[in-house]
Amino acid sequence: MNTRTMLGAMLTATLIAAAQPSFAEDVVIKVWSRADRSGPLRAGNIVAAADTLNKMLTAAGSDKHVKIELNETNAKGYDEDALDLLKAFAVDKGPDIFVLAHEWTGAFAQAGYAWNLEDHIKKNPELYDDIIPTLWQAVTYKGARYGVPQDSEVRMFFLNNEDMRKIGMSDSDIAALPAKVDAGQFTANDLCDLAGQVVQKGAAKYGILHRPNAGPDFQMLTESFGLVPYDKATAKLQASKVALRDFYTWVKYCIDKKALVADNTSMSWDAIEHASFTGDDVFAFFHGVWRVTDQMKGLNLKTKDEYFHRFTWINAPAGKKGGKPSNLSHPIAYAVSAKSKNKELAAYIVGLASQPYRNLQHAVTTNHTPINYGEQSMPELVANGWALVAATPMLKYASFMPNHPKIGQYNAIVFKGIQGVETGRLTAQAATDFVVDELENELGKDIEIRK
Amino acid sequence: MTIENARFGRAQARRQRANFALFLGPALLLLACFFLAPVIVDLGLAFTDMDRTLAVTTLTLDNFQRMTTRDTRLLASLGVTAIFVLCTLGIFNVTFALLLALTTTAVPRALGAFFRAVWLLPRMSPSVVYALLWLWVVDPNERGLLNQVLVHVLGMAPADLRNNHPLLVIILANGFIGASLGMIIFTSAIRSIPEHLFHAARADGAGALAIVRHIVFPALRWPISYMTIHQTLSLLVSFEYILLITGGGPFFDTTVFSLYAYRRAFENGQYAYGAALSLILIVIGVVAALGMWRLMDMRRLLQTPRIEVH
User: Fold this and answer.
1) Does residue A22 register a pLDDT over 50?
2) How far is it, in rounded angstroms, from Cα A302 to Cα A240?
3) Which residues on chain B are in Cβ contact (under 8 Å) with A265?
4) Is the pLDDT of residue A8 over 80?
5) Nearest CB to B54 within list A90, A412, A434
6) What are the residues whose beta carbons fall under 8 Å from the beta carbon of A394, sequence distance 6 or more?
7) Residues 6+ apart with CB under 8 A from A424
8) Is the Cβ pair B250, A425 closer than 8 Å?
């Protein structure tokens, strides 16, 4: 923590202490965070920040003591967690601080549960001015910031080099792949062809594996086929029938090529992780850069060189030759409850948790890209964050999910379409019709369907 | 005298009211809280726009309009429900339960008790454990129990029942549990048949099948009718094991109507629409119960017996 930050925090602590009569008092701050193996410090940093604050309070002679009550939920994904949290708020059981996937900011802001942090952020530049500006877009709803980015990431397809070697590809062929993807020469169909070959020649059991539930990963693929979910001009969600059909045609193509398996969506996360991180059973897995941690551990890889001998990263290839590949960055964020009696205090704790030292612990231990400029030059990141440094150029093709309150529903519907095609229940056209029907039914005036 | 009579009458009326409250009160309270109130709440919710924030902003008929004109999955889901209920009920909860009762009462008492206990095991294990076992049994990989048998013992290709025959999986999983209730009821009914009837039949030269047909079946008429009605209603609304084993999938293949309402309500927070869908289930439940009550002439079961049998 730099001196300016420390001084700011000390001043805050002193002010809080001075404003209250001095008798021993616990101020309880409730924190809601989904228990996530890929980010235990999201909640951990809040607890640590409260410790820091308590030390400051003691040093200032205050009897006040901040006590964090942590509720780590067991939802399968951030969408499910957000729905549970909305229910908790509705019955007045909401927390003071909560961790959310950034695209839910709009939903919580609209419902009046997320506090508008604009004033707080402006009043405390020493706490927030080092945060990388583009990340603020992810927590902005109708021009105001309702959250503080907690981390960022880069998503990608992890291709298993061993599987490619087994089918006779040379190391130079493999090394050329990322550039071919970026140039639009290697398309999504080519990826399926390759994955299918790997499976059919017995080099791997699975061609491509993806998450089993609805979530942000699929947006980078749908975008490759031209599905732009948000129209900035009308501030509405949108879907193009042609893009949907092209995308689902690709899913069907992958199934036919045996690149995708029919039961991917009924597999458990555990089974998918086991297959992806403990051997060469999976040719292509797509998720985010933080998975490097699991791959290193599962395959007992020690160095960057060992890692890149085993894996190649590519963006989501373009849908058509000459098209643009895509990528997605999906920040997780902290938000403060607008219903909290201790909003200011909670916001300061979030501010303290977002300082370079704390955030770096999360970044290097879980391979998430840091939120502050300052972290990028810290020795620990330079020494241990090679994966983050390597992934950063991929952000050139990255976009965020739109911060529309109903984007979670949108994603869930697109996912059901994927499930329908993968399991052989729907043709590409039927999936398109199903998704269009569902989008219109569920989202009503929030969606515009285009040709 | 008249005053005393009147006093006595009043006291008796008071006592009757007190007895009524004492004996029927708890049951009525239970019914009101857990059966009537949810129906009323559901009915109210169905006419609102309650979404994931649990906020009601307007009263509307939109849910019903969506249900009747725009919901493309509703009919398919009713179809899945019909297949699921008829097959589980017809094959397991009544027929197989009957077979279990007949066989376990025909063998020596201790052996019968042992087999009945085995069949009760799934009902005694927590649902999640039972569902996990099924997930392992039908796992499409070679580590699944079924595939271990198919591949290693029979030398066949591995099967993926959960994706290719999902309805079969949920019927089997529900049936194996459901059969035990019928088994217990039917066993007790068979046990209550006076022993001398069996002896007499045997003395008259009746074989095992004839005994079942002419002595056991007539005694099981009411238990079978009761089990059919009870299990139909129970299967209509139960989706616990389906949710745990297939999640209603693949896609919507095993989404029975109760699960459909649940998925609509809880997967995307459309609580009002889920409530409107549940109303259909309430109507189906009431119609099915009354229809079967009439069809099976259950009123006769509840009539006061004209003679006492000792």
Assistant:
1) no
2) 45
3) 249-250
4) no
5) A90
6) A154, A156, A313, A315, A327
7) A255, A262
8) yes
User: Identity (one letter) of the amino acid at A389?
Assistant: V
Q: Extract long-range pairs of B234-238: CB within 8 Å, 24+ residues apart.
A: B235/B84, B235/B85, B235/B88, B235/B89, B235/B93, B235/B174, B235/B178, B236/B81, B236/B85, B236/B281, B236/B284, B236/B285, B236/B288, B237/B281, B237/B285, B238/B174
In whole angstroms, give the CA distance from residue A277 to residue A271.
Answer: 10
- Measure Cα distances from B25 to B13, B21, B22, B32, B68 in Å: 16, 4, 6, 10, 40
Q: What is the pLDDT of residue B305?
A: 64
Predicted structure pTM score: 0.82
Q: How many CB pairs under 8 A join A and B?
A: 62
Which residues of A are less than 8 Å from B65 in CB distance?
none
Query: Which residues in chain A are closer than 8 Å to B163, comparing Cβ atoms?
Result: 262-263, 266, 423
Residue B310 in this model has a pLDDT that exceeds 60: no
d(CA B102, CA B161): 31
Residues of chain A with Cβ-Cβ distance to B71 below 8 Å are 441
Max avg pLDDT among A85-94, A263-272, A367-376 = A85-94
CA A96 to CA A118: how far, in whole Å?
Answer: 17
Task: State how far the Cα of B79 lies from the Cα of B93, in Å rounded to an integer.
Answer: 20
Q: Chain B: which residues have CB within 8 Å of chain A?
A: 52-55, 66, 70-72, 140, 160, 162-163, 246-247, 249-253, 266-270
Element (H, E) at A288: strand A282-288
Mean pLDDT of A196-216: 94
ipTM of the complex: 0.76
> Residue A129 corresponds to which tokens in the numbers above?
């001015």
